[in-house]
Amino acid sequence: MEFVLTGIDAAMRAMRNIDAKVTDENIKPEAARALQPVLETARRIAPVDRGEFRDSLAISDTVSDGLTRDGRGAMYFGPLEGQAFHGWFVELGTVHMAAQPTIVPAFEQHRDEIVDILGKGAGRLILSAN
């Protein structure tokens, strides 16, 4: 009985190519695409007084003043900084006001879809590496 393993060099080259293709910058558009249904649902179910909270909801790769979260490929979803600060009080409630969750329920509603979209996007990036 003889056992021969071939293709290790090619597999290692492919792995290096994947590392070059699946970067934080390349995955950000996939993350934004995955969060789009969440944004649409959150805007639809947001409580509206003047509409500031609803209108401030956004997807961004920056937190404030152009700073990225942890300097990596993270994406931010929620009220943009400097807009509708009271949105967090609406979402979480206060001692004087009951919570009216918007962001968490929208995210929960689309959890499986987010994973699916991100997985397919990462898969496309991986396949394009080889």
Please provide a written account of the structure.
With about 130 residues, the protein is mainly α. It has six helices and two strands. It has helices spanning about 10-20, 25-45, 50-55, 85-90, 105-110, 110-130; strands at about 55-60, 75-80. Helix 2 packs across helix 5. It is elongated and about 75 Å long. The relative contact order is 0.19.
In summary, what is this structure?
By secondary structure, the protein is mainly alpha-helical. The chain has 6 helices and 2 strands, in the order αααββααα.
Assign an overall shape.
elongated
Q: How much helical structure, as a percent, in the residues? A: 55-70%
Specify the structural class.
mainly alpha
- SSE order: HHHEEHHH
* Overall pLDDT: 83
What spatial order of strands do you see in the largest sheet?
1-2
Strands, total number: 2
Enumerate how many helices there are, as a single number. 6
Strand content: 5-15%
Which residues sit in consecutive blocks of at least 5 with pLDDT less than 50? none
The rounded Rg comes to 20 Å
